[in-house]
Amino acid sequence: SLQKKTNFAMKLILVVPCYNEEAVLAETTRQLSLILDELKEKQRIDEGCILYVNDGSKDRTWELIEQFAQQNDYVEGLKLAHNVGHQHALWAGLEWAADRGDAIVTIDADLQDDVRAIIDMTEAYLRGNEVVFGVRRERKTDTVFKRTTALAFYRLMQMMNSNTVYNHADFRLMSRRAVNALLSYPERNLFLRGMVASMGFKTEAVYYDRTERFAGESKYPLRKMLAFALDGITSFSIRPLQLITLLGLTFMLISVGVIIYGIVKHFEGQTIEGWTSLMVSIWFIGGAILVACGIIGEYVGKIYIEVKRRPRYFIEKTTTDDDPLADPYADIPY
Ligand code: UDP
Ligand code: MG
Question: Using a 6 Å cutoff on CB, does residue 108 contact ligand 1?
């Protein structure tokens, strides 16, 4: 219960991945600090931390993080050695936060997610939830294009049996227990929202309105969005492979008809007329076979990436020098 939990020291860590976010970082720091101040004042938390994970930014993001870490007691930073992408940057932050915080919130740097929802999430955590999903109530401020593609994506995910919460991205709170459970997943193809949804802890959703990016531009162009959607499907579902089988069976049924038709035509002495239908079928079936190979290839590619077991990221620097992670090569025996 609330009473029992608040008897213990409670530390909340906000994990914020940043890729070229120099334009928003000052405002993000200001707003997140205010939220942590408020939670402390209301005695919902004892300690707060904002962990910025610099995902190989090419602009002044890291310099700003270092500067804020000096000025602001909440702020810490991890500098990844190169750009590993949103999902892996989140993972790096979660690994750092897992044994340092009691509850961990992941939120984008661009202030598109309502920071006030963090307060509701904390309350939900104190009520005993291990995972609290931030769910967008509406998408008025997204462009028509982003909105339709995003909704099509959620629909597709449902059709493909992937585990996702409708309209939930990567804005969520997890208890230390849930984070450790997530970190026990060995896969390299990360689709965090699906992985968290599949864990099955006690969860709740918190609703908020999504606003526009505070500054800067989206780091998810269409190409990355498509790749991410494909990852979401092929990491969680073998439905596409089953569809190939279904397609194959359908073609076999059709071909029975075609064979009968061909024999009848042969005995009627009109075989030369079959040229058109033959050409059409060759192209169509050729295309279908290529698509089938492609889908299988997607999964084989996934297996290839998984079996390599490569490290997900390297930390180059942190803002805390008492930290063992500060030397990224400490564990490597050469
Ligand atoms: N991001 C990252 N690495 C990347 C791309 C994005 O860490 O390679 C971060 C980015 O800084 C932001 C979050 O992931 O905090 C979401 O990106 P963005 O807001 O550009 O995506 P959108 O909201 O447009 O889908
Ligand atoms: Mg954004």
Answer: yes
Residues 48 and 75: their CA atoms lie apart, in Å, by 9
55 contacts 18 by C-beta, under 8 angstroms: yes
Ligand 1 binding pocket includes 134 (Cβ within 6 Å) = no
Per-residue pLDDT for 260 more than 60? yes
Measured from the Cα of 16, ligand 1's closest atom is 15
Q: Which residue has the higher pLDDT, 183 or 223?
A: 183
pLDDT at residue 139 greater than cutoff 70: no
What pLDDT sits at residue 322? 56
d(CA 271, CA 264): 9
Distance 112 CA to ligand 2 centre (A): 6
Tell me how far the alpha carbon of residue 220 lies from the centroid of ligand 1, in angstroms. Answer: 6
End-to-end distance of the chain based on CA atoms, in angstroms? 50
Which atom of ligand 1 is least distant from the CA of 85?
8
Residue 103 neighbours by CB under 8 Å, 6+ apart = 10, 11, 12, 13, 45, 122, 125, 173, 174, 175, 176
Answer yes or no: are the C-beta atoms of 28 and 111 closer than 8 Å: yes
pLDDT surpassing 50 at residue 334 = no
